[in-house]
Amino acid sequence: DIQMTQSPSSVSASVGDRVTLSCRASHDIDRWVAWYQQKPGKAPELLISAASSSQTGVPSRFSGSGSGTDFTLTISRLQPEDFAIYYCQQAKSFPFTFGGGTRVDVK
Amino acid sequence: EVQLVESGGGLVQPGGSLRLSCAASGFTFTSYEMNWVRQAPGKGLEWIAYSSVSGNTIYDAVSVRGRFTMSRDNAKNSVYLQMDSLRAEDTSKYFCARSRGDYFDLWGQGTLVTVSS
After folding, report:
1. Is the CB of residue B102 less than 8 Å away from at least one CB of chain A?
2. Contact B45 A89 (CB under 8 A)
3. Are B83 and B70 in contact (CB under 8 A)?
4. Residue B101, pLDDT above cutoff 80
5. Measuring CA to CA, how many Å separate A74 from each of A6, A8, A34?
6. Which of A107, B31, B94, B97 is the residue whose CA sits 20 to 30 A from B69?
């Protein structure tokens, strides 16, 4: 199975900050990565697919990059509604696997 | 409205069974693959099952293999998860999620399954 490791597990930030979240795959997965945002009590929402393709309606402050084993989700200017948990997921092969998540909370 | 609605969760004793349903609406169901993903309380996400559009190809996670069975009824725009031999560690919120290209682009609100005596 492909393991996905996210770092850090949590980050404290302020509104307006630039936040960078990392995800590392245990094997080369090309660009088969997605990023999801989950708020308390809600279902996850897809932000980014194929490493860097933003879903319709996702604010432009969210961007994804990377290929192979190392991937990044960047929030350019953190907004109040962005405090949440972010998960990466590999879609290269079954079983699909998620990273453990990065919690972005208020500094 | 484009949505997925899960149902069928509840409290069940260890060793018991439960059948979850997920009803899709607002989109062409037969254009999408479907999945089940679960989340234990306070924990991360775990993919557990996938169904092709036809329902003829099913993949599942090792953690549920031989105990859980995913199925699909395109005439009813629904997918199901039959869960047998339930264990305490199966306690989770269960989400159905649609996919195309292996990314989960629409999720239901989830249904909670609690396995406890």
Report:
1. yes
2. yes
3. no
4. no
5. 13, 13, 13
6. B31
